[in-house]
Amino acid sequence: xxxxxxxxxxxxxxxxxxxxxxxxxxxxxxxxxxxxxxxxxxxxxxxxxxxxxxxxxxxxxxxxxxxxxxxxxxxxxxxxxxxxxxxxxxxxxxxxxxxxxxxxxxxxxxxxxxxxxxxxxxxxxxxxxxxxxxxxxxxxxxxxxxxxxxxxxxxxxxxxxxxxxxxxxxxxxxxxxxxxxxxxxxxxxxxxxxxxxxxxxxxxxxxxxxxxxxxxxxxxx
Length: 221
Fold this sequence. Notes:
It is a single chain. Helices cover 0% and strands 45% of the residues. By secondary structure, it is mainly beta. The protein folds into 2 domains: 2-101, no CATH class; 134-208, no CATH class. The radius of gyration is 19 Å and the shape is globular.
């Protein structure tokens, strides 16, 4: 387990790890690059945790976009690495996903889904690919592309969901860019419980995470 706190100007400080076991205890990781602010966007692929980061020595508002990149943490070696992201729209990514077994950054632009795929973390090499967004004229809401399906019969599909919670049941859309096909899946038990304080209808004040093919492995701590 990795725990990270934020200090002045929301800069990362005092990263700690906990190895699960009978004699587990928290200890500080010394190998941590200075002067960056961690973001909530994250994904774990093959034992490496990737998360968004803003690099710089000033406030976070002065470095967002210009010095935005990706941090990685290898849970085996307990080593941090900073990964540069190509300049331009790639630094405005809205989510992370697994694509062809690799880390990919997602953003939308001019009716297209943009993917920047990490080919070599050491050399900071990325490749880009684009897919046309589906026509969703029948839905009265704005959508966000959350992730891609990377395995199983549905591999290659993208998962879209509304940005704002509405009175009707929450749902996700699976979009296959090759077949130009969209299918809808309703998710019950979210918007129906308005008494739950964590679900705020203001999308700027709440976080929705979607994980395709998620399998939980429960462990009591």
